[in-house]
Amino acid sequence: MAVDNGETPDARLWARACAGDHSAFGDLFVRHANRIHNYCFRRTGSWTLAEDATSQTFMETWRKRSSIAVTDSLLPWLFVAANNVCRNSERASRRATNLLVKAPLTEHVRDHADDVAARIDSERQMQRVLLALRTLKRADQDVVAMCDWEGLSYDEAATVLGVPIGTVRSRLSRARARLKVLLDDEVGPRADSHVGTDELRGEQA
Amino acid sequence: MSVQYLPPTRELPPEQIVAMRAELEAFVAREEPARPWWRKRRNVTGGLVVALIVATGGGTAAAYAYLHPRAVTDKGSARCYSEAVYVPGAKFAGTTVASAVGGGNNGTIQDALDTCASLWQVGGLRAGAARGTGPVAGATYAVPALVGCTLPGGMAAVFPGPPDTCDQWGLAPESPPAVRAATTPAATAATEGPAVSSP
ipTM of this predicted complex? Predict the structure, then answer.
């Protein structure tokens, strides 16, 4: 069994996994699990949903392997799978909302109080952002999440979304402008409430 | 990547990652191995061809049709793989070789198997290496068993592995067949002499 030392490119691990080396796919999971976990949290606003969605994202990616051509990083493909998984889990969670609200918080009792408080705070903060995000078209939401939140290049996003690069640019531009207004309205014009893409411009210019 | 209106990221506990990985690998093991569509189709075709062989009394022509060997049509370059893995569209482990001639033009590679074998022999290709390396002066290396396949675009691809490697990856075997047994450095030196680079 090969050990992932972090130097083997994703494309090689992916090729090995497709050739029957299951541990190679495990290596890819370990490499990207935290990234996908946080991405799923940002799409669902719930750490609990994000944990389930993380595993499902990798399973979904594996099921679709015959249509995935990994030439560099697997991450963009994982984000696309996560978009679909999170939408489905979000729909399911809405149906079960009443039950969840009434259920005892047995999982949380075992955690440290500070950790629980931090989880809840971050969930509340994320829910506010999602409230604004979900006023955008679904395609625009995906572009914001993948490019602004996760740092995919326009080129990478265009490839995995199957749209021209110009479409990615225009969607992102439109979404940023809309989000800026919505988030300023929501939290007030704070110094940290800008869309926060300055650091991206350098790498995507 | 941090966007300031987003809450801070969190990490999954290591023990949870280990458990999730085990669950995922078990899931992958349960799933049927990925088979390219052309392989599935060929298996169906294979059944038909076997029926044809039986119906017609068999013959070399029918067997030939089943194996689908293809001649290399793009001889401008060839791929020397360092491992027996072929995934369409993905980066491959190994190197592409071309035969340089005068005037900055590329020549043709008449024998991809021999060219790749030479590369292995001088240490320019190591098993599993992501890309080719510079040859090691004065050293001679073992050459693994090699087999030549023809890529969909008509270029030769030489893999380390047994003769059925092409079929395993849904590739046509090279025509005429290009198969070479493994050789140790001593055997290589005795049977073939020093490695010769392509002109």
Answer: 0.76
